[in-house]
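sry for the spam today, last one i promise. struct tokens for design, 473 residues
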């Protein structure tokens, strides 16, 4: 059930992208409006994650998980039945809101349920594999559904995952009552949610209107002010939304950083490589999804081996930086692509290296991000995992797209009148994006290597008291 929930959240980040051209033709919205189908989900999901995580801590993970699943299914049904652009965008925002409840509840359930080291390793191996490979699986499933059925099934398909998982959850999960329920930190909720909202909105606006646009600068500046205010509040309130002890631990800080940096870079694989395969090499949507299968398989295999046989012995420090370096090398090799190069010789080797690298990163980062966290903070610690991934993806979307577009424009200006200019300029833009992604991953290897410790992971303490009870002792 937890695996299905994680698949829903990750799948939704890419499956709708494949459906967008068909949805645009059917509902008649403009190219400028099209980005809001993606941005509406990202804004709601990213800004409400910390609240969703704390709700799971305060009111119980079982029912937060089930409400998240059923709400996500309902929002997906609404989006699939959309008869207008506004209805589709509203449904996507609802998906994001319920996803913000579902994702942290799922990861915190995983972290608190599987405490035996061997079982924990296997469970996080499955979870990490889905986190790394789910996006590429979304491309495959989206291409299949769009070609065989209809774009609406890219939304309806969530119902087929969510409803059976929710029904099973009502029977198999146990509700654990919270003995002492502290007050919800409403000022923290307001500053965190609005700060992340402004950040994601500013990044999305930068992608379409540029980094120097007034609204972009105002949104990004406001996000900095609000997030600084949030940190200041968390240092002073009795029951903070995000206790700073969760993020100041070096291993957890390193894990959150790794997830965010990988989120920036993996966007380059999905976006630029999808465009290259479809627009330059002429692949169909389904063929593009199939092209990502070797990377999926490598991520899944690597994650399984690392979580069951390696991580408990070595700790995360040697694994996460090595994974980033492998992925960086794969990105660098991907820059060899050209207008008429072959998939097997110029794309496949890179995908295998990238898959191996991300398998190391995700399989090590997820258990590290929740290791040693007491149960009463597990929901918000889990929410930080998804927040890191969401912010990383938003930065990747805006930054890499801008850099690639600038490179394309410069190339077209410098080679005006050359035969095949459009394809050559596009490929130059893609390779520029890959070079930047490689550089970001290399810096990530240095950052995480400095933050992470060499010791093995500590499991979350069981039976740990609530904050108030702890203070009484």
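last one done:
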């Amino acid at each position: 059930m937890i695996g299905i929930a994680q698949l829903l959240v990750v799948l939704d980040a890419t499956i709708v992208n494949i459906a967008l051209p068909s949805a645009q033709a059917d509902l008649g919205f403009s190219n400028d409006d099209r980005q809001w189908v993606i941005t509406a989900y990202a804004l709601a999901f990213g800004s409400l994650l910390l609240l969703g995580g704390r709700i799971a801590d305060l009111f119980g993970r079982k029912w937060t998980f089930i409400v998240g699943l059923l709400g996500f299914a309902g929002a997906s049904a609404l989006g699939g039945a959309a008869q207008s652009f506004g209805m589709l965008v509203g449904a996507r925002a609802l998906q994001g809101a319920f996803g913000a409840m579902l994702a942290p509840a799922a990861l915190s359930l995983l972290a608190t349920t599987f405490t035996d080291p061997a079982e924990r390793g296997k469970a996080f191996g499955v979870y990490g594999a889905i986190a790394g490979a789910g996006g590429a699986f979304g491309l495959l499933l989206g291409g299949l559904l769009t070609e065989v059925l209809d774009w609406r099934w890219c939304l309806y398909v969530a119902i087929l995952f969510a409803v059976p998982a929710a029904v099973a959850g009502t029977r198999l999960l146990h509700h654990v009552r919270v003995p002492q329920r502290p007050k919800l930190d409403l000022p923290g909720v307001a500053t965190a949610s609005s700060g992340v909202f402004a950040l994601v909105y500013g990044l999305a606006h930068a992608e379409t209107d540029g980094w120097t646009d007034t609204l972009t600068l105002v949104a990004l500046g406001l996000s900095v002010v609000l997030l600084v205010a949030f940190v200041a509040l968390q240092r002073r309130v009795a029951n903070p939304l995000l206790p700073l002890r969760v993020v100041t631990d070096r291993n957890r800080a390193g894990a959150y950083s790794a997830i965010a940096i990988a989120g920036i870079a993996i966007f380059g694989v999905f976006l630029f490589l999808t465009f290259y395969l479809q627009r330059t090499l002429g692949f169909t949507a389904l063929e593009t999804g199939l092209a990502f299968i070797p990377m999926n398989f490598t991520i899944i295999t690597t994650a399984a081996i690392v979580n069951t046989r390696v991580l408990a012995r070595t700790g995360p420090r040697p694994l996460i930086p090595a994974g980033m370096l492998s992925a960086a090398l794969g990105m660098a090799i991907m820059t060899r692509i050209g207008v008429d190069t072959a998939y097997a010789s110029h794309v496949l080797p890179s995908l295998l290296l990238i898959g191996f690298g991300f398998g190391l990163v995700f399989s090590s980062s997820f258990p590290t991000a929740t290791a040693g966290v007491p149960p009463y903070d597990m929901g918000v610690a889990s929410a930080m995992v998804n927040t890191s991934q969401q912010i990383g993806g938003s930065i990747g979307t805006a930054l890499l797209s801008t850099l690639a577009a600038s490179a394309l424009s410069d190339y077209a200006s410098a080679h005006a009148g050359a035969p095949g200019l459009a394809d050559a300029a596009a490929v130059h833009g893609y390779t520029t994006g890959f070079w930047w992604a490689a550089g970001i991953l290399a810096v990530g290897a240095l950052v995480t290597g400095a933050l992470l410790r060499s010791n093995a992971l500590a499991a979350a303490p069981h039976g740990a008291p609530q904050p108030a009870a702890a203070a009484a002792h």
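Confidence is low (pLDDT under 50) at residues 459-473. ok im logging off now
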